[in-house]
Design brief:
The protein is mainly α. The chain has a single domain, classed as Ferritin (Up-down Bundle). Helix content is about 80%, strand content about 0%. The chain has six helices and no strands. Helix 2 packs antiparallel against helix 6 and helix 5 packs antiparallel against helix 6.
Length: about 170
């Protein structure tokens, strides 16, 4: 697969849309099965934020579509599927295993933090390597959004750990 410097803003946006869909599924699943109200609220908010990201990305498509490297989406779909399958968010099997653990809320937070940090790192590197200004702009926006999610997750994890620690 070519390096990310070879992708236009359009390809970046379409790939990110697939990951946002996976993120929504992940956060919705965890929200529905979270044990603590704090975790349930956080994961519900993140699921909704992924929907908002998807809407923002959909609004950006026309801006970036002109001059994209791919004539039509059918040519690009195999790449989109590979990108979405890269387990930026954990697989359904891995998530199911974590949700059965005694500290499932904390473990799910760990998975979410890891996913958001990996996604942010990917887009930070891509922003630095992109050849086109629209690609750099798209990558930088996505990186900032994922950094924001990771920060919120870390803050809430600390709150959840504090609230679940027995007081003596």
């Amino acid at each position: 697969m070519p390096g990310f410097e070879e992708f236009s803003g359009f390809e970046v946006i379409r790939a990110a849309m697939e990951v946002e869909k996976n993120g929504h599924r992940f956060y919705s699943t965890v929200a529905a099965r979270a044990k603590s109200p704090l975790a349930r609220e956080l994961f519900s908010w993140l699921a909704q934020d992924e929907v908002q990201h998807l809407r923002t990305l959909e609004d950006l498509v026309p801006k970036y579509q002109e001059g994209s490297f791919w004539e039509d989406e059918e040519q690009f779909l195999p790449y989109l599927r590979r990108f979405a399958d890269k387990e930026i968010f954990p697989s359904a099997e891995r998530l199911e295993q974590v949700l059965r653990e005694p500290q499932s809320d904390l473990r799910a937070l760990d998975l979410a933090i890891e996913a958001e940090e990996n996604f942010a790192e990917y887009f930070h590197r891509a922003a630095g390597a992109a050849r086109t200004s629209d690609g750099r702009e798209a990558f930088a926006w996505l990186a900032a959004e994922e950094d924001r999610h990771a920060a919120v997750l870390k803050e809430r994890k600390a709150q959840l750990e504090k609230s679940s620690t027995p007081r003596g």
